[in-house]
Amino acid sequence: LAIMGDAGMESTDSTALQDSFFSMTDVFLISLITGLFTYWFFFRKKKEEIPELPKIQTVTSPARDGSFIEKMKKTGRNIVVFYGSQTGTAEEFANRLSKDAHRYGLRGMAADPEEYDLSDLSRLSEIDKSLAVFCMATYGEGDPTDNAQDFYDWLQEADADLSGLRFAVFGLGNKTYEHFNAMGKYVDKRLEELGAQRIFDLGLGDDDGNLEEDFITWREQFWPAVCEHFGVEATGEESSIRQYELVVHTDMNMNKVYTGEMGRLKSYENQKPPFDAKNPFLAVVTENRKLNEGGERHLMHLELDISNSKIRYESGDHVAVYPANDSSLVNQFGEILGTDLDTVMSLNNLDEESNKKHPFPCPTSYRTALTYYLDITNPPRTNVLYELAQYATDAGEQERLRKMASSTAEGKALYLSWVVEARRNILAILQDMPSLRPPIDHLCELLPRLQARYYSIASSSKVHPNAIHICAVTVEYETKTGRLNKGVATNWLKNKVPNENGRNSLVPMYVRKSQFRLPFKPSTPVIMIGPGTGIAPFIGFIQERAWLKQQGKEVGETVLYYGCRREREDYLYRAELARFQQEGVLTQLNVAFSRDQPEKVYVQHLLKKNKENIWKLVNDGNAHIYVCGDARNMARDVQNTFYEIVAEFGNMSQSQATDYVKKLMTKGRYSLDVWS
């Protein structure tokens, strides 16, 4: 507006300097008309524009590095492996494939699609024997991972000619989810539509089965197809090539050493928003109470203070927390490998052109790396066993490790039984193979990163703008080897006691936006189904509906189906739910106690019992349905129950009823927040 004003003044001044062709009245009228036209043009038009819905973003987009084509040309690479990864597995697979390439006289590089302009794919044919591989994980309900969102958007909108591009796709998914491997399937289909040439079939990995075996099986058929296509041969056996070199720092300034930060050095001492995966906020734990009154399990409610963080969240969002490994497990690495864990070191990438300079923040100590940066509790993948085998001095142990890392049927079966089903983590393998004593730096290079854990937020920001509530159950089980395995995050959270010995308990966290949202109109009825800790987001939903009611808004029926084992043991948020029901916010509370009677009763049984009311709410009241909790059994059983209800009361066939429910999902009226 200031610029427009200046321009107007300049025009008036120049007019005044000229001979008086116009009277002052004329000048005034012309100025008025010009002003009205300017206002109409700039402001009225803006009002008519339809606002574009923002894309779901959790992390700030990094600056793009430029062209991956130029980088490949500069470094002599001809294979690029892009990864869409949420928990690190797809990135790990991409690194393994890029490392494989040298066996065939080719050179590969793993690449994060978020860091490059993917429209350059049309130029890949400029490089001889070039190939693009995509390791794409599916997140949530058929969504791309955060780092693949831009790539997904580009694919949807692109009309590029990719006829010179050769590609292959391996998808990472979970069959217990409705949209199994949706991202991998979409990328494979869309690249072909844009004219690209598929040189090997789409691979579909299933994390509900054996994802590692799925990947190895695909990989062992993929490389022969690459060899045939390019007319190359394997140059020899798979060899162990170090990706990083160890540098030990003897006189390092400790102010330059990472102590658990995820991104910027000293970011935990000097906190600066915005907070995201690379810059988590240290939230103070203000409450940590046990929710259940009995039973063997420990169910807990935690409250995190986010005051002054500028973190905003909505009911249905997820909070991500970065846990720490148990110090007693970490100490055992030092004892078994005879290493001073407080040695300060760096692992530096031998490939100077790589974007990934270190496998985790460096310089740091082995203790910090094993505590905050590395996953030491999950069974290691076969590539880790292969690389470690060379350090076993006992011939039998070395052969066993190599066999488990092989692609033979016998090797796969042994890996499945001895590692996966026995839930042997790296520490257990070191304990059970006394001759296996690898250098700790190589072990740290091979172990995957410790990932953030996601929890459905159990509060409403309308009621608790400065706090985020978590509802979780500690994971603890005995393995086939008799060891007691404990869930990293839940046991770490369990020990976060508020204000212990005058010190704050801190949790590094950030918020991940979700599409699990209450209806836009408060008057729309909602049916919430969440047994166990699946009740978490619904506590937030009910709090929000209560707040809306207090604001004088008309709030529709709010129906909850909750389930637990026993009424007197693990009925979570019992008092809160009773209060909401008494206040008239929670219009129906249906609770299934699965073990309080001889026959098991679950939430789907209560849905069937109230089927007429359910149909009326959904069909006549346009109710929104929400399901939260276990994907493998509960979510599937609940969905099948809805198929039955729709078929019966809508006078539909089974296939028509299925289509009806699927349409509800498409319209955002049947939402899932599930895990397996």
UniProtKB/TrEMBL annotation:
| PROSITE patterns recorded | FAD_FR (PS51384), FLAVODOXIN_LIKE (PS50902)
Tell me one GO biological process term: response to hormone
Listed under GO cellular component are:
cytosol
Q: What is its EC number?
A: 1.6.2.4
Give the residue spans that cross the bilayer.
Answer: 20-42
One Pfam short name: NAD_binding_1
Q: What class of enzyme is it?
A: oxidoreductase
Where in the numbering of this chain does the Flavodoxin-like domain appear? Answer: 79-223
Domain named FAD-binding FR-type is located at 278-519
Coiled-coil parts of chain: none
Domain of life, source organism: Eukaryota
HAMAP family, A to Z: NCPR
* Protein name as catalogued: NADPH--hemoprotein reductase
Instruction: Record the organism.
Output: Penelope pileata
Q: What is the lineage of its organism?
A: Eukaryota, Metazoa, Chordata, Craniata, Vertebrata
